[in-house]
Specification:
With about 290 residues, this protein is mainly β. Helices cover about 15% and strands about 40% of the residues. The protein contains four helices and 19 strands. The strands form five sheets. Strands 9-8-14-15-16-13-10 form a seven-stranded antiparallel sheet. The two termini are about 45 Å apart.
Length: about 290
């Protein structure tokens, strides 16, 4: 029986926060969230296994023994090489596929089991990162640079700079009142990558980064492109892809809420840009090439 490496994507994905209750007044910007508690939803973990077997009878013996172990009362403890210990309860099995027919000797069967994690494997006492990378200055949470965790933005930050929506204008039955417009809160998804020098460093910084957001109250996120700091709170981790080895790395996304958007961008000039969709060529209205992707 072997646990396949693709399982690490599911194991490392941060849990989703329970819905935060809030008030949303028409006469004020944003929302007023109740952040006195930090609670997470039970997390679904999908693990990919492979059974190696030399005969049909050997397969069914291993298959049945393993299944009985998984469905026994209580939680199953998984102590993995990533340095984390998971307490999971069995939910269901899916995607079972035989790699080789029994008639041809040695074979293997792969399958996916879904488990539920009710608590969290993350040690909440781990708050300070170790190691890190030299590339810094893009983001910081509560004064701690993302680079200290070995983390840096992956791709553009258009999601961060996207303008917030406005709240519905008051309508009295005849006219819309536009003398005052209030902004809505804003939810952003930040794509990130993470590097480490060892498995121990990766597991440590993985926990420390999550603990920077997984707490009561608001956090203060510094964003270089806006030249300042905004209040945020953690919502979810929408993706996690791990490359496991001696020096693990990962790509993942976290979803944050900005209760009140406090920055604005002053527009000093507007110009026309022409784009060639086939070659990525950008030019201004005078025909001058701006950039070639």
């Amino acid at each position: 029986m072997a646990l396949l490496t693709g399982s690490y994507d599911s194991l490392f994905r941060y849990p989703k926060r329970k819905t935060v209750k809030h008030t949303n007044y028409a006469e004020t910007d944003g929302i007023q969230p109740d952040l006195r508690r930090f609670e997470t939803e039970p997390r679904k973990v999908s693990l990919n296994f492979m059974i190696k077997h030399r005969s049909e009878s050997e397969f069914f013996n291993i298959h049945n023994d393993f299944f009985q172990t998984m469905i026994a009362p209580g939680y199953r403890t998984f102590n993995l090489e990533n340095g984390l210990v998971y307490e999971l309860r069995y939910d269901k099995t899916q995607k079972m596929r035989s790699i080789r027919l029994f008639d041809y000797g040695d074979g293997g069967t792969t399958f996916t089991m879904d488990f539920i994690e009710d608590g969290t494997v993350i040690n909440q006492s781990i708050v300070s990162p170790t190691g890190g990378i030299r590339l810094k200055g893009m983001y910081a949470v509560d004064g701690r640079d993302f680079g200290d965790f070995g983390i840096h933005p992956d791709g553009d930050i258009g999601e961060v700079l996207r303008y917030p929506d406005v709240k519905d204008a008051f309508f009295d039955g005849r006219d819309y009142h536009l003398d005052t417009r209030m902004l809505r809160h804003k939810e952003i998804t930040i794509k990130l990558w993470m590097l480490s020098n060892s498995q121990q460093e990766f597991a440590h910084n993985y926990q420390a980064f999550y603990n920077s957001f997984a707490k009561t109250g608001k956090q203060y996120l510094y964003i270089r492109e806006i030249g300042g700091t905004t209040e945020v709170y953690y919502m979810d981790c929408s993706a996690f892809k791990v490359h496991w080895g001696d020096r693990p790395s990962a790509k993942f996304s976290i979803k944050l809420c900005i209760p009140v958007v406090t920055w604005s961008s002053g527009v000093t000039s507007i110009w026309t840009v022409l784009e060639d969709p086939d070659f990525g060529l950008l030019a201004d209205e005078n025909g001058n090439v701006i950039i070639l992707n």
